[in-house]
Structure formats: structure tokens, C-alpha cells
Design goal:
Layout (H helix, E strand, L loop, with lengths): L1 H65 L9 E3 L15 E13 L2 E12 L4 E12 L6
Antiparallel strand pairs: 1-2, 2-3, 3-4
């Protein structure tokens, strides 16, 4: 009877070690998934902030153009759209530039295309985004 009891304890002791190893492996796997999810979330947040600043910078250029009340729009390209007014959102972007292209859309409207270019730190490459809007040919505002 004693021998049977010892054999049973040895068998259970071996299973407990295997259970512990499997448990450690699963725990490591779960922590790895959690950490990678957190890293991806942080990168996504950074990229989202970048695109928000890009949109705000383009909107600022459009608002700068709108601030020229009753000014007739002339066709042309402004390689540095900051000459139309300050664009403070560019300082939040890495190596950013902004340009605006004004062209006739039809007899009553002009099309303005604002292009923002910057180096994206999360994406580790240069990116560009275009925004388009229309203005009355009679002037920006009456």
C-alpha cells in the first residue's frame, strides 16, 4: 500500500511540473499579446495626432485665404502657403511644408488645393495629404 502511494505521489509531482511549464508558457504568451497591443495603440495614437495636425494646418491655410475679404482669387501656385498667413500647426509636424494651388473650377468658382507634406515618425517615411475646396470667383467673402 505504501509503495502504491509513493508511486502515485511521484506521478503527480511530474504532472505538476508540466502544468507549471505550460502555465508559464501561456502566461508569457498572454503578456506578449498585451504588450504588443499597447505598443500598436500608442503608435496609432501618434499617427492620429499627426493627421489631426495635418488637417488643422490645411484648414488654417483655407481660413487664411478666406480672411482676404472681397479679394479676387488669381490662379497660381503658392509653394510656401505660409505667406498667406501663419500656420502654427506646422510646428507640431516633423520637416513639414505646405503649398496651395488656385485654379479656375468654372466661371463662378475657383478650386483651391492645399497640400501638406511631412516626415511621419510613426510611419518612418515622408507623407503628403491633399485637401480641396471651392471659392466664389467674385471674391472670397462679401
Amino acid at each position: 500500500m505504501m509503495e502504491k502511494s509513493r508511486k502515485l505521489r511521484k506521478k503527480q509531482g511530474g504532472l505538476m511540473i508540466v502544468d507549471a511549464i505550460i502555465g508559464m508558457f501561456l502566461l508569457t504568451l498572454v503578456f506578449g499579446v498585451i504588450i504588443s497591443t499597447m505598443v500598436m495603440g500608442l503608435q496609432s495614437g501618434r499617427r492620429s495626432r499627426e493627421f489631426q495636425n495635418v488637417g488643422l494646418a490645411a484648414r488654417q491655410v483655407v481660413e487664411n485665404i478666406r480672411s482676404f475679404k472681397k479679394a479676387a482669387l488669381a490662379d497660381g501656385t503658392y509653394q510656401d502657403a505660409t505667406i498667406l498667413g501663419a500656420v502654427p500647426q506646422l510646428s507640431a509636424l516633423s520637416n513639414a511644408s505646405i503649398s496651395a494651388h488656385v485654379s479656375s473650377f468654372n466661371t463662378r468658382a475657383h478650386q483651391v488645393v492645399v497640400t501638406v507634406s511631412w516626415y511621419s515618425v510613426p510611419a518612418k517615411r515622408n507623407l503628403a495629404q491633399k485637401f480641396t475646396t471651392l471659392f466664389s470667383s467674385d471674391g472670397v467673402a462679401k
